Amino acid sequence: MSGTVRVLPLGGVGEIGKNMTVVEYDGRIVVVDCGLRFPTAEMMGIDLVLPDFTYLREHVDAIDAIIITHGHEDHLGSLPWVIRDLGQDKIPVVYGGQLTIAMARSKLDEHKLRDVNLEVLPIGDVVEAGPFTLERVHLTHSIPDASGVAIGTPLGTVFFTGDYKFDQTPVIGAPADMSRLAELGRERLLLLLGDSTNVDRPGISESESLVGPHLDHEVPVRRLGVVLPHRWWLDDVAVAVDDRQLHRHAASPRTRSAPMVTPEAPAMTGASPTLCVTAGVAANSCGDTDGGSGGGRGYTSGVCGGRPSSVRP
Predict the structure, then answer these.
(1) Would residue 206 count as lying in a domain?
(2) Exposed/middle/buried for 284, CB within 10 Å: 0-12, 13-18, 19+?
(3) Statement to judge: residues 151 and 224 lie in one domain
(4) Most buried one in 69, 93, 119, 297, CB count within 10 A?
(5) How far is residue 8 CA from its own chain's centroid?
């Protein structure tokens, strides 16, 4: 069988971030991940660091698909800039899991890139993209919906692990699909490209299910220096994912009516806007603190307009 499989890392090798790799066969291309990197301290005035995708610009007509392993910024964050540079009509399809595609759609909407063909590729399904076949394999990571990618070529299978660890008690979903990994091994891979972050550290990584209890014990939930009540307030907050965006379900009546009082903090009541979410911790955002009709508790970072209507020293 003739032909050559070329693997061209455009970022993510020898560094943390900017994960982006080209797999090429017979002049056709599949791109795995479109990540970015955040600037280091010496990069004054730099907001984001993008991979150099000049090669894709020069071979844009050869791209058959982009597939994203998971929704972290170092694997998804540069997608809007890549799409804007190459052209929405030049990318046949972007594949990923349901959460990943929802996050990608949200990012592209922010950049007013609404004509990109985004498709959810369920775990285990196999699709064709030019001379390639694409399959997502369920793995576990610190974000839901993470997967490896098996790219079939006429010469054999190239497998990208993406970011992963073998978490036997994940917070959400099942452990990694070891049986499918074993099947791929029996079928013999042409090439395995595996995440090696912190591989030089001895021992094993703890389960993500232990992170929450550790944070509960070690880190008080703060609001601009005000300590909030603990897990009882957060436990009633649910996060849902639809095909458009991440959004919040309404919290329970207990959550809406409970005043936020601790020995270190003043009471806050009334229906004035308060602080938005910081670092993924649920907090009242542009809504009521006393169960009124405002109800808009969100997941954006920053301080909304207005002040608490009643602050008792």
Answers:
(1) no
(2) buried
(3) no
(4) 69
(5) 23
Domain harbouring 151, CATH code: 3.60.15.10
Task: List, in order, residues 6 or more apart from 290 with CB less than 8 Å away.
Answer: 256, 257, 259, 269, 270, 271
- Tens of pLDDT along 269-292? 333 333 333 333 333 333 333 333
Q: Are residues 168 and 86 in the same domain?
A: yes
Residue 308 pLDDT class (50, 70, 90 cuts): very low
In terms of Cα–Cα distance, which of 165, 166, 162, 161 is closest to 185?
A: 161
Q: Flag whether 199 is in a domain.
A: no
Record the tokens describing residue 279, joined without a space: 């670092």
pLDDT of amino acid 77: 95
Token pair of 238 as six digits: 């649910």
**Three-class secondary structure of residue 289 per DSSP:** coil
User: Burial, 266: exposed, middle or buried (Cβ in 10 Å; 0-12, 13-18, 19+)?
Assistant: middle
Determine the straight-line distance between the first and last CA of the chain, rounded to whole angstroms: 79
- pTM value is 0.69
Tell me the C-alpha distance between 115 and 109, whole Å.
9
Q: What pLDDT is stored for residue 16 in this prediction?
A: 86
123 and 175 together in one domain: yes
Cα(29)–Cα(57) distance, integer angstroms = 12
**Residues of the chain above pLDDT 90, percent:** 53
Structure confidence by residue, pLDDT tens digits, 37-74: 999 889 999 999 999 999 999 999 999 999 999 999 99
Residue 91 identity: I
Domain count, the chain: 2
Please provide residue 65's backbone torsions phi and psi, each rounded to the nearest 5 degrees: -170, 155
Q: Which of 142, 174, 193 is the last residue of a domain?
A: 193
Domain span holding position 178 = 5-193
- Spatial separation of the C-alpha atoms in residues 109 and 59, rounded to whole Å: 25
